[in-house]
Amino acid sequence: MLDNVDPFIGTAATDLPRAHGLAATWWWPKPQVGNTHPGATSPFGMVSACAYSGAYPTGYGRYAKNTEGVPEEMFERTQASGFTHFQQSGTGAIRKYYNYVRVTPMVQPLDDLGQSWALHDERAEPGYYAANLDTGVRSEITVGEKVAVHRYTFPDHHSARVVLDLSCGGLAIDLGRTVPLRAQVESMGHGCAQGTVVMEGVPLSVYIEADTPGWRQMLWYDRRLIPGGTRLDFDSIRHTTLRPFGLLFMGSARAGQTIEVRMGFSLRGCEQAKENLRRECGTAEPAFEKVRSGTRARWGDHIGRVKVEGGTPARRTVMATALYHSLIKPCVADDESPFWPNSGPYAFDICTMWDIYKTQIPLLQAIAPDRAMDLLESLIRVCEEEGNFPIGYRMARGADRFFRQASALAHTAIADAHALGRNGIDWGWALVHMADDLRRMYGEDFFEHGLVHPITHTLDLAYAHHCTAKLARALNDRRLADDLERRSHQWVNAFEPTTGLLRDSEFYEGGKWNYSFRLLHDMAARIELSGGDKGFIDQLDRFFGYGAEPVKQPGVGPQPAEMALGYALNRFEGLNNEPDMEAPWAYHYAGRPDRTAEIVHSTLTWQFGTGPGGLPGNDDSGGLSSWYVWASLGLFPVAGQNLFLVNAPAFERATMRVGDEEFIIETSGHRETPIGVDGLDHDPPAQYVQSATLNGKPLHAGHLAATDVHRGGRLHLKLGPEPSTWAHGIRPPSHSFTLSKPPANT
């Protein structure tokens, strides 16, 4: 599927065909833009590179900062002032936006540095990005895991130059700029240079080699050359004292002359940056094609771990691109932590856990288990160093700025990894940190009162107690397990008994309906709060818009009154945002997987498409794209419960490589349906599971243990155009509280 990937999907404002049926009743409160970028990336690699305009939030494109509705344009055209490194992928307002070390090919004077030029003939594929600047320079970039290689083809000019600006960081929006605290740049002659900039307490080092025969190499400060200078040092930089600084290579260029600039990066000094450059680029020159082909091979391996058969060309493009977006973040840099000196993975750009823990981390556990375990090892180390498991983490000490969103989410991923029998983690040591983390931040109030506002933190903490109790019980710490399990059932305190919905509270990016249908560890008791199956299904039907009229989505700069009316609908957000992304599968617990099929089918049909406007909302580091991958496969992971829910897939046949095994999802009776079909007055018929077998044996339940999937096998689903009674009577497991019994001899 590698050739089906389109990195431009999600880079522009949402532009999907007008939805019909259920999807037309869903309301989108959050930004209608994917916030992805088309730059060069490597799977989970430390480095990315893309054209830089300063726009929100990746540095690429032309949009201003927005938190709801259609984004306003910051620029009238797609433009760039150069090419930067370390971009976000699909996030929103995270306050720190990287985009370090800007490289600008120029045929203008240095005084014009910072000017933007229009981009033409943009091209992108996994690991490669290219565009023409208005100045006539063809720009190509590729990256490895810790390196970036730029290749510029110049027009005929007597004074061409490649300028590196080490002062650059962040975006050209209010509060979006990042200023280095300290810096040093050293010109080492013969096309070599190195430098370190300290951003938010993190020393980012770069070692640079440039193939510029006959060109001069000079340092510059405040857009003025420093003839004969070999080193710049800045011991203390403030916003008021910052002036641009860096180095450049300059000389005459003949038409078609190519200049290659190679950069190795490290968070542990220039010498390690040089070693990283040598490891990936070698000593032969040039290195562009070598790095490009190596990264393409890595992408081919990772994306090839999921294969699908059937599907329209558009559906295959969306699927391949969703898989690609799911594997960009988090960044995992081996032996690169600036905070602990020993070896081991350093995972950063985890923005944010509340977007990725339900869908993306389970996907990594399935198809990239080594990197999933690296992530967990790194999170445990962050907890050791900083005192808590982060909800999101950036390349900066004390970088968890996301605690308002949620609480104690790493616990779900750790519990799942242990249940799968993963190695490489000291589970006893992990348990110590998990238990301690439950008392921090909002956890203190939960411990004392069993109730926390914002109320969603009550659900988070109760669930994390359950996940931690599972690990404690597996490690034979019965006393701790009993205490945690008892507290885990305080989730009930979050609900209003008379309505079966969450209590009134503050809600982050949603309302109480969006959060009321989360998949808890005791869904049987949760359903009883709503009056049993019928009451629960009636509430879900209302939430998903059965029988409702189509709604109007917010436009550019929606007014508060318009947004208040939208929130008052108490409606599913249609994957425009993540808080209710697991809600369609709540029907499984009430014996109505056919309803799940209708909602997921409608979502896959209307809410995702091809082209730059093909995403319904922020991709959020791959959390949204991972949802699409799972939904297309007909599986949904219940994070923290070692469980998959089963639904009709979007493809006739799919194969997922899990470790050394393969899990195959095959169908009979599958009907091919296009995506985004405009002009229909209702959804295409949903496909419903009529019966199922697992490894040739009848499967009467609509769920599987995650271990069944991870050990490999064959799931066969017989599909039909009408609902059936399949899986109505066998519900996914619920975990009610019971004290563990002491051993018989005590």
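(the above was protein one; protein two follows)
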Amino acid sequence: MKKIAIVALAGLLLGTVSCKESEFAEAYPDPAKIAESTVEKQFTGVLYANREYVLPGYTHYFTTLRLSLNPYTQAIGRLNQSGLYVPGSAGVENVWYNYYNMLAQYRELQKIYASRPADQQADRKIFMLAAAIYVYDQTQRLVDVHGAIPFSEAGMLSTNGGEYASSLAKFDTAEGIYAFLLDDLKRIATELNGITLNAGYQKSFQTQDFINKGDIAAWKRYANSLRLRLLNRVSDVESMKTRSNTEIAEILGNATTYPIVETNAQNIQINVFDINTDINSKGFQGGLASDGWYGNTAGKAMIDHMNTNKDPRLPILFEPGLNAAGKFIGIDPLATEAVQTAQYNAGQLAIYNRYTTSHNQFFPGVIINAAQMNLIKAEYYLRTNNDASAKTAYETAITQSVEFYNKILSLTNATGITGSTIPTAATPASVAAYIAGDGVSWAKATTNAQKLSLIATQKWLHYNVVQPYENWADLRRLDLPVLSFQVDNANNQTLPPVKWTIPGNEITYNAVNYSAVKAADNLKTKLFWDVK
């Protein structure tokens, strides 16, 4: 691994990718021909660069998520060993450099676009707007785990003519990046409302866009849904409260001008159509389920909540241990390592359902979905004292979450799984009964604090291992649901961290710029939106 300036150059070598690496190799055997890239192909290169960190790829789940985010949210269980709350350096670096590889390709896209005459820029503007939305989404994700990161000056090695020293990037503050993203996404949302494409470029956009297939309406929903997510994330930050409430009200009150994802048919995700292409989820099995219980063993809190409340998603998301007599049992985070190990070895612990998740090679790359949006709406309506709308959004979200996992189950191509049978899809009647149950019912929660806990719990259940970054961010921001962790007194990091630290190579090679953020670069300094 090298610093950002160098990884930017490496990123350029994939910048002209369409949908297959083989196609790139055939069309561009000489990396010196990178200057011949087009706006259209470079746009796809941006999307392609981090596809395995949006689709459930092996490296992401195995080296990063099983050792950090997923156990920090208790979406999975972990052995109580010393050091379990210290993020693995390899996993953190993989996420860091994957992001900057993508960002370098985005900078190259900007460079290519800027070199075109005005008429060509006008024809290809949609590629720039869509690429920015996607990059901003991934930027929020990195900010939410690290805080301050290099952004505004990062990935500029090619733009700066290969001048290495001038391409070392400063660290932008997390709050500053959020403000920029919100400003520019609002600009993009407005610009998308007035954009038109001629037939030729509409076809080109459809061909190169493997997320929304050239659907401009979907990109509008993506932009505004991302705005809603960012605005909700900063809703408790004193300096941003007014903006958060004003702009959320503007978005939710003007569906025609600022559409968001409202139904599962509108979900923003990378769909897998042919597992023999590079757009597939073949790595999910190895990433989630290849290391015994470390990757996919159920946590006790989640399983207990689903059992107690007869959650219709339980048999879709999990399968019982081989010797558990059909019972769903999660690993107790407060038990000793010996007890946990014995329980696992006895085949008692539930795991994520292999038909739905790990062995499902058609599992989509989840970006934004309807249940997520309605849970954000429920939270907003609750804090603005609109209880009726909060209730509607909350209950709609639950229904949509069940539909979401039913749909994913229906896509599965998993075969040859021993000790389990393919689960049955949840029924509308089971969803209605769940929503009316004591531990889920909105009407039976008597205070706003209790209702916020209901919303937070449904986010946690819906996100699980599928949207781990959203899960960890909301858990830190809301401190809900309340989870118990064994204190690791043998290590300086006694409980789960509140963020990641900057990777070592970046510290070494970008030392001057790093010095500005060094004081806050530890596992205990909260992000600016984590104020509770």
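Reviewer note on protein two: Strands lie at 149-150, 171-172, 268-270, 318-319, 351-352, 365-368.
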